[in-house]
């Protein structure tokens, strides 16, 4: 079983943020919250009714509560939440992340059965039916991502999700619904579902500078040909029939 030296990861992250603070024009890229305490993580887990995957829990305790990447887990007037996150259903994190195809089909059924005006006696009845249909369809979409945290937004409503409940617990998924209505598991170089550690360390490796030619060559040798795209970006490389086909 692979172990991660999170203390070393924190040092790498601090070095990266120090470098960015000196040279980066984007203040958001230098945001880094302190790690959480065991009591704080326990409190958040009790509120959500879940136990975080072990590697994400270790990250929160030993590296950082988050910031630029991933979103920060923080307390607020209404309890614990992830900063700048309006998509995670905090009240349903304990509801297992569903089978993708089953949940997709259920949502499609709602979207495909919009009320028709000619089937209603009055325009008011039709508008009421459409409002109820729209609410049901939106609820079906929310059902597709229960048990998952929208851990990082990537613009244009794309997001990386960490599954915290259900058979896929611990896996990172990509919400590609803005393009083709699918969610897809993010994969490692070996083709297995990426966990939080895979996803985060891969991001860190691509962000931090490689100082010497020897380091750069060693890094090149470590990674198979064709796998230089960061894990979180790979979905965009194969967004066609492979990921969008039914």
Question: If you had to describe this structure to a student in words, what would you say it looks like?
Answer:
- There is one protein chain.
- This protein is 43% helix and 9% strand.
- With 246 residues, it is of the alpha+beta class.
- It has a 4-stranded antiparallel sheet, with no helix packed on it. It has a two-stranded antiparallel ribbon with strand order 1-2.
- Strand 3 and strand 4 form a beta hairpin.
- Helix 4 runs antiparallel to helix 5 (123-143).
- The chain is elongated and about 70 Å long.
- The mean pLDDT is 83.
Give the helix/strand layout:
Elements lengths: L5 H18 L14 H11 L5 H9 L10 E2 L6 E2 L17 H12 L11 H21 L4 E6 L5 E5 L8 E4 L1 H4 L2 E3 L10 H12 L5 H10 L11 H4 L3 H4 L2
Antiparallel strand pairs: 1-2, 3-4, 4-5, 5-6
